[in-house]
Each structure stands twice: as structure tokens, then as C-alpha cells.
Specification:
Homotetramer. The protein has 433 residues and is of the alpha/beta class. It has two domains: 343 residues, TIM Barrel (Alpha-Beta Barrel); 52 residues, no CATH class. Helix content is 46%, strand content 10%. Strands 3-4-5-6-8-10-11-12 form an eight-stranded parallel β-barrel, surrounded by five helices. The protein has a two-stranded antiparallel sheet with strand order 1-2. Strand 1 and strand 2 form a beta hairpin. Helix 5 runs parallel beside helix 6 and helix 6 packs parallel to helix 7.
């Protein structure tokens, strides 16, 4: 126990009419929805990096947060872990996620980094056993240190590639030891700043080789979880090779790994790629590579990845609609890859940000379940494509241009446009919110 969250009780569910800000209004973890509790549907996770490692800076200003665990000793790393697990207890979340650099101070070399990671992994194990917490996923930070300024797997220096590969191995070992349910790869600097000094073919080949090594090592150590890639189009680089779900799928197909790797989709990254969150989720579902999500939001006026806590229930309802259509989470979950605003200094702010995000997710999920159960949206979609259910239409899919042309002439086909009814469907969705 620590006193950082002093006098903040465990967050109860009190229903939509409560005036207690330290209570859930929509998230009752025991509430059953389609035979499964909200706890098991949503599989909430807290992100270690934003909640406990981020100092509150932005591109134009430095640290604003003062946390008692900020520092570069293992004693402070253990204090950070104690505070983190206290927050997990208060919120009642079942999972957490971390990068290696979030949980241990940087060492002088790879060996010291690994020794420190192993030490904190053992400490996590003790805290997890005592609390019942689980690890949703682990990952390696291959983007913050200056050695990664030109990428990790895609770096022009083979020594950086080697250091990165070794770091991934140590992080996979830690994830396996802690019973993690996934391992995530986010190529924060796997891209380029300018084509003038970039060999894209070589860099893609290096990234493919690294990913194959990760998959091979997964099987070697008997890791039962999923390997996930998290797409992002740019920022901090000008262009990243994991631009969006479609790009990742093409990459996986190129290297024969589409059956081995899935995606962890972030709302903010989808927006940066020019897509909606539900677009990325729907495409991943259709391609069979949906794995997990990072839940947050961007400020649509800023144009960069602001990683704010989610509060847009209509958007979240459409996202969870696609997740429910995919059958829900298996190894994945809802990770809050979100951070406080740099002016939100108090411990209470960190708790209440998660409370609001969890409530909004629960409200969105329940609206999505109502939409899916009612079936009106799916029926409208079915009706729009009903013409393709006829034998003649189905036959076109395996026909040829000449035969189709003969049919158009013989039957006098002269189609007229039909309404897509977009506004009616938008009104329909709003009925469930």
C-alpha cells in the first residue's frame, strides 16, 4: 500500500442517477449482457506508460507532473509498481499493459536493462499473485532512446537491429513469465523522415525478418497468446510501414504471416490514418486479424495523437458494434492508451479519468448490443445487397465480361440508382444511444 491515492476508495457501481463522481454510472462489472458479464466483455486494462511513466510534457513544454516514483533506481521502480497496483485495485480493472522502459530504469547496456527487467518482472509476479491482476500484453519500447532515432528493425545500422531483437526477446520472456495474453509490436520509428536517405525495400525486408523471428520465438517458448501489430500512419516519423490495418495485412501477406499475427487497433491512430475507428475494426474483422484495442480519442482540432481519455459514446458504440460482430474479445481487451492533460496534476484526476472512460465504454457497449440484438441495422444492410442473392447475380462472380454483356443486352438491363438512406440509418443508430 502507498499513500499516493490516499482516501480514494474502491470505485463502486451506483447507477446512472448517482451524484458521486467516484462511482460508476454505467459500468457494473457483474451486469450480464448476452450471457457474459461486462467485466468479461470489456476486459479493461490500464496502460503503465501514460499513467505512471509520462511526465506531462508536450512538443512545446516539459514536465508538469511531480510523482514520488520519478527517478532511475530500482527502489523507485518498485514504488511505481506499488502505486500502479493500488490504482488497479481502486478501479477494479482485471489487466494492465507495459513496455520494458516503463517499468525499469535504463541501464548502461543490454545486460543491465535485462537484469532490471527481470527483477521488476519478479516483483510484478508477487503483486499479481496477491491481487489477482493479469497482464493483457507486454511490449518493448524501441522508439524513445536515441539509439532508435532511425528505427529499430528498420535501422540502417545492423547493431541497432541486433540490440532491438535482443530487447524483444527479453520482453517476450517477461510477458511469458507473467502469463501475458498477447505480445504487441508497435513500430514507433519503423518508417522514415525523408526518402532521400531511405531504402524502403531493404527496410521492409528487415521488418519482415524481425517479425518472422518473433513468431518463431513465440512457438519456441510455447507462448499461447497472440502476436499483435499496432498500426499507425505517422508521428513521430513522416511515414510508418504499419500505416493502417490494410497496410499491415498486405505486409503480413507479403511475408506469409497472415495466419500468425493480428492487430491491436488504436482509436487515435485510426483517425490519424484518415479512417474512423469502426472502419479499422470492421476491416480487421473481415480480414480475420482482429485482436485487441487501445481505447482513447484525439482532439480533432489538434491534428496529432493527443491520447485523451475516451468520452464520445456514439463513436464508441459503433466501435463495440464491430467488436461484437467479430465475436468479442478472445485474448484481447480494452486498454486505455490514454493520458491526463498536462494541467491535470492531482491523483484524483488519474482515477476519475479512468472512471469516465470505463463508464463511456460500458455505455457504448450496451448501445452496440441493443443495435445488434434488434437487427434493424443489419437488416437494412441485407436489404441493400439483396439483389446479389439471385442466381444470376451470384453467377457473375465467376463469369466473364462477354457473358455479362450478352445478359445486359438480352434482358435490357438499365438500372436506376437507389437511395443509400444514410440519414435514416444515422437516425436509427441514435435511437440506441
Amino acid at each position: 500500500m502507498t499513500d499516493f491515492f490516499k482516501d480514494i476508495p474502491a470505485i463502486p457501481y451506483e447507477g446512472p442517477n448517482t451524484e458521486n463522481e467516484f462511482a460508476f454510472r454505467h459500468y457494473d462489472p457483474t451486469e450480464m449482457l448476452n450471457g457474459k458479464s461486462l467485466h468479461d466483455h470489456l476486459r479493461f486494462a490500464c496502460a503503465y506508460w501514460h499513467s505512471f511513466a509520462w511526465p506531462g510534457g508536450d512538443p512545446f513544454g516539459g514536465q508538469t507532473f511531480e510523482r514520488p516514483w520519478f527517478g532511475d533506481t530500482m527502489d523507485l521502480a518498485r514504488m511505481k509498481a506499488d502505486v500502479a497496483f493500488e490504482m488497479f485495485r481502486i478501479l477494479g480493472v482485471p489487466f494492465f499493459c507495459f513496455h520494458d522502459a516503463d517499468v525499469r530504469p535504463e541501464g548502461v547496456d543490454y545486460a543491465e536493462n535485462t537484469a532490471r527487467l527481470d527483477e521488476i518482472t519478479d516483483y510484478f509476479g508477487e503483486l499479481m499473485e496477491a491481487s489477482g491482476m493479469k497482464l493483457l500484453w507486454g511490449t518493448a519500447n524501441l522508439f524513445s532512446h536515441r539509439r532508435f532515432m532511425a528505427g529499430a528493425a528498420t535501422n540502417p545500422d545492423p547493431d541497432v537491429f541486433a540490440f532491438s531483437a535482443a530487447t524483444v526477446k527479453s520482453c517476450m520472456d517477461a510477458t511469458q513469465k507473467l502469463g501475458g495474453e498477447n505480445y504487441v509490436l508497435w513500430g514507433g520509428r519503423e518508417g522514415y523522415e525523408t526518402l532521400l536517405n531511405t531504402d524502403m525495400g531493404r527496410e521492409r525486408a528487415q521488418a519482415g525478418a524481425m517479425l518472422q523471428m518473433v513468431v518463431d520465438y513465440k512457438h519456441k517458448i510455447g507462448f499461447k497468446g497472440a502476436i499483435l501489430i499496432e498500426p499507425k500512419p505517422q508521428e513521430p516519423t513522416k511515414h510508418q510501414y504499419d500505416y493502417d490495418v490494410a497496410t499491415v495485412y498486405g505486409f503480413l501477406k507479403d511475408f506469409g504471416l497472415e495466419g500468425e499475427v493480428k492487430v491491436n487497433i488504436e482509436q487515435g491512430h485510426a483517425i490519424l490514418a484518415g479512417h474512423s475507428f469502426e472502419h479499422e475494426l470492421a476491416l480487421a474483422r473481415e480480414l480475420g486479424i482482429f485482436g485487441s484495442i487501445d481505447m482513447n480519442r484525439n482532439d480533432y482540432q489538434s491534428g496529432w495523437d493527443t491520447d485523451q481519455f475516451p468520452n464520445n459514446v456514439p463513436e464508441m458504440a459503433l466501435a463495440y458494434y464491430e467488436i461484437l460482430k467479430a465475436g468479442g474479445f478472445t485474448t484481447g481487451g480494452t486498454n486505455f492508451d490514454a493520458k491526463l492533460r498536462r494541467q491535470s496534476l492531482d491523483p484524483e484526476d488519474l482515477i476519475l479519468a479512468h472512471v469516465g472512460g470505463m463508464d463511456a465504454c460500458a455505455a457504448g457497449l450496451k448501445a452496440a448490443a441493443r443495435m445488434l440484438q434488434d437487427g434493424a441495422l443489419e437488416q437494412a444492410r441485407t436489404d441493400r445487397y439483396a439483389g446479389w442473392d439471385t442466381p444470376e447475380a451470384k453467377g457473375m462472380m465467376t463469369s466473364d465480361l462477354e457473358s455479362i454483356t450478352d445478359r445486359v443486352l438480352a434482358d435490357g438491363i438499365n438500372p436506376q440508382p437507389r437511395s443509400g438512406r444514410q440519414e435514416r440509418l444515422e437516425n436509427l443508430v441514435n435511437r440506441y444511444l
